[in-house]
Amino acid sequence: ASRQARATNYRQEGPQLMADVTIELELSSGVWTDVSDDVLARVPIKWSRGIMDSGPLDLVARPGAMSFALNNNASNSAATAGYYSPGHASVRSGFGHGTRARLKIDAGGGVTARFVFNGRLRSISPSPGTTGPGASFCLAEDWLAEFADFDDMQLSLVEDQRSDQLIQDLIDLMETAPATVDLDTGLDTYPFAFDDLGSTQPQLLEIAQAVMQSERGYLYIRGDNSTGETLTMENRHARSKAASALTLTESDFAYTGGMVVPSSLDRVFNDVETAVYPRRVDNAATTVLASLETEIEVGVGDTITLFLDYRDPNNLASKVGGKDMVAPAANTDWTANASSGGGGTDVTSDFDLSSTVYYGSRAKVIATNNGTVTGYLRGPGSDDGMQLRGKGLYTYQPINSRATSASSIASYGRRNLPSPLEMPYQNSQAIGAGVAEFVAHLYSDVANVPTKCRPLTEIPATLQACIVRDIGDKITVSETQTAVATTEVFINGVEGEITDGKTVKMTWTLAPASTASVLILDDAVAGKLDSNALGYA
User: Fold this and answer.
1) Reduced to 3 states, what is the DSSP secondary structure of residue 274?
2) Largest CB tally within 10 Å, which of 179, 204, 274, 350?
3) Is residue 217 a contact partner of residue 242, using CB atoms and an 8 Å limit?
């Protein structure tokens, strides 16, 4: 009744236009310019970022986006038509594809203004005609879009690194880094990583997913008070140790779409398997892990670049990693001749292969012919081509661990997770088993666990309370009609819309929180044997 009365009053009185909304563009390096005067209020500003679902594999955010429209006719701040048309003679200096854009919301009430989005313009669509709407429709995508697009894989084998170090390795490959990086310290040290990529060369976002599955953590971008771009990684203990940062009751939610609660068993998983992957390394760096299957012609003064995947010499259909790779030695690992088929003059001494680069699962062979005749690169005494030697790094068959929730099975029947939760760099069976137990518990019930909510942020007090909350924050929600009673959940994703230039609406994607106090040994808060339930290491 209180929510309905509040919503009725809101509809009668209209929104209290209190938010101060600013869009800024980085029109020159390091200098942000407020272009809010040219933002068309009649076109809603929309943004989204984060993890837009809450299943067991939803651990890494996908690229976020923001859309808005700029006044592109002579009524804009510069009184210049075409001011926001890339390629136009009068285009604003610094405006174009790749220009950074960010959104700031000042909710008033003494709450520090917050940047809720930061990204680069990926799409700019000016409307045609001098008598038309005069709008330039803009779409910006956040840093994760660049991360997802990057596929120039140069990942060397790494040893004895944690998940946060692996994520930093991926960031370091990029030409641009996030404005701020906040990575929890990973809880495990993985013996090996990046040995399983091969010629498939997954994009960085896919590799980050493998890292987070191994950690059982989360990776996403949060807003903040300075840039709107904080790349954040949670380790697997973070959510178990988090305290609720906000409580919302039914009067705090929008009357329509204020709470979404699943009405099916699709999100119940009470029978869960995990898979961890132990590895074995050869004792000596003498295993032939790659070879050319045909000779390669190299012209005078030419340089060729080849990529060779490492293969198990006893099973060439199987990819392997490579450790302690040996630089290819002339007359041992390769030869070159002036004629095809191994004939003619031996020109091995004219070739240089010293720039060959070794990655975790493949090598980049760089061969230069410094001689005066065309040469054919071959293997010594064989029709096969050159070879690469090192220690083979073999991934064993996975060790699977299984956990069930007896009470959930009794209530709903057996609900299997469709396939094992892969933990590609994890080698500990104990941790795999613990994760299976935790996930089977976390997803064992469908009742009273909302997956989305829309706080009534059109009301100043609610906006002020909600604008500072972001992905990774635990909140407590209650809503009588849907039987959601003092339920703790995590914000996984954020969607927002600003209408009339002032009215802010936000929708949160929610993920379940454990209903038990999980025991984490050696932790001051979560390590109390008399009050915490057993959790994974």
Assistant:
1) strand
2) 274
3) no
